[in-house]
């Protein structure tokens, strides 16, 4: 049994990781949460699981390395599911982890970065992807990683799809896209912990389904019996929005937890046929016990037609 520290446990990804750790392993879990956070109390746990779950309120942005190292004493694995402004604290947390003797560090990746090539022929990186890329580089270049005292595992994936929201299509609706179910990702991550020799110092990618919006619409019609009307916009919307954020259509602005310009960029990469990885860069095969939730399986469950 290991002692695992989880950062960002109150977020959507972190919550799934927390539940996977508690329900499929016997590991002890320490969740570091912001002092004012109330969401940490909302996780449904059994009495046995509550004995293994420890909640540590700490402001990651203001806490010192020594304070964090004290909290991480006895921890063998640190999993970061941080996002937004607090991601800036990840480097400091890794310093503390090294001081505390943590053996494995998981940076907060869980996505796919893209360079946008504008009509001027130059490449551009959105600030959100830039921040993630810089944070990842700091983790993998950390002195403790270089010396071998600490190892890392970085996990990428497709777009998370098990979220209720309107779907707007930008560009080609027949383009293949990598999608990942959040609970599948959590199960994959747990397996990388259970088999550290397979995941040591590796960048791994996990995908639940590779499918187009046309195929998704066909499946949705099959399982709901209703006609699906696709909202398809030309890819030129992406180019206009990159130059001027006020050009983002009203119906999509605010349709995601991410900024509208980032959302438009993600959808544009999908519609341009760039949001997928070749088979050799997908590592589902390393842990065949992780069952993937394809869109068809998801709709079967969602609409009560799952025979298993």
UniProtKB/TrEMBL annotation:
It comes from the Eukaryota. Residues 1-16 form the signal peptide. SUPFAM superfamilies: NAD(P)-binding Rossmann-fold domains. The keyword Signal applies. Gene3D superfamilies: NAD(P)-binding Rossmann-like Domain, UDP-galactose 4-epimerase, domain 1. Pfam families: NmrA. Keywords: NADP, Oxidoreductase, Signal. GO terms for molecular function: oxidoreductase activity. InterPro entries: NAD(P)-bd_dom_sf, NmrA-like, NmrA/Isoflavone_reductase-like. Residues 3-248 form the NmrA-like domain. Belongs to the NmrA-type oxidoreductase family. Isoflavone reductase subfamily. This is NmrA-like domain-containing protein. It comes from Aspergillus avenaceus.
């Amino acid at each position: 049994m290991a002692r695992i520290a989880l950062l960002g446990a109150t977020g959507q990804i972190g919550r799934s990781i927390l539940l996977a750790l508690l329900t499929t392993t016997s590991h002890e879990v320490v969740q570091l949460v912001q002092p004012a956070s109330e969401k940490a109390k909302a996780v449904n746990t059994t009495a046995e699981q509550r004995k293994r779950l420890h909640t540590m309120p700490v402001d990651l942005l203001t806490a010192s390395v020594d304070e964090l190292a004290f909290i991480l004493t006895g921890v063998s694995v640190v999993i970061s599911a941080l996002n937004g402004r607090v991601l800036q604290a990840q480097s400091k947390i890794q310093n503390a982890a090294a001081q505390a003797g943590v053996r494995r560090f998981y940076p907060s990746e869980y996505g796919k970065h893209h360079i946008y090539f504008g009509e001027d022929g130059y490449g551009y990186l959105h600030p959100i992807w830039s921040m993630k890329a810089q944070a990842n580089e700091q983790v993998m270049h950390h002195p403790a990683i270089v010396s071998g005292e600490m190892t890392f595992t970085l996990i990428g994936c497709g777009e998370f799809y098990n979220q209720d929201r309107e779907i707007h299509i930008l560009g080609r609706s027949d383009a293949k896209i990598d999608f990942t179910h959040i609970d599948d990702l959590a199960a994959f991550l747990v397996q990388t912990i259970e088999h550290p020799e397979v995941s040591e110092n590796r960048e791994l990618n996990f995908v639940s389904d590779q499918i187009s919006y046309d195929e998704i619409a066909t499946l949705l019609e099959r399982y709901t019996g209703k006609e699906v009307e696709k909202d398809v916009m030309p890819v030129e919307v992406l180019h206009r929005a990159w130059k001027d954020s006020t050009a983002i259509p009203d119906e999509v602005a605010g349709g995601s937890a991410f900024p509208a310009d980032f959302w438009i960029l993600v959808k544009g990469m999908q519609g341009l046929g760039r949001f997928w990885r070749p088979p050799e860069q997908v590592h589902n095969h390393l842990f065949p016990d992780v069952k993937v939730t394809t869109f068809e399986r998801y709709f079967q469950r969602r609409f009560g037609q799952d025979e298993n």
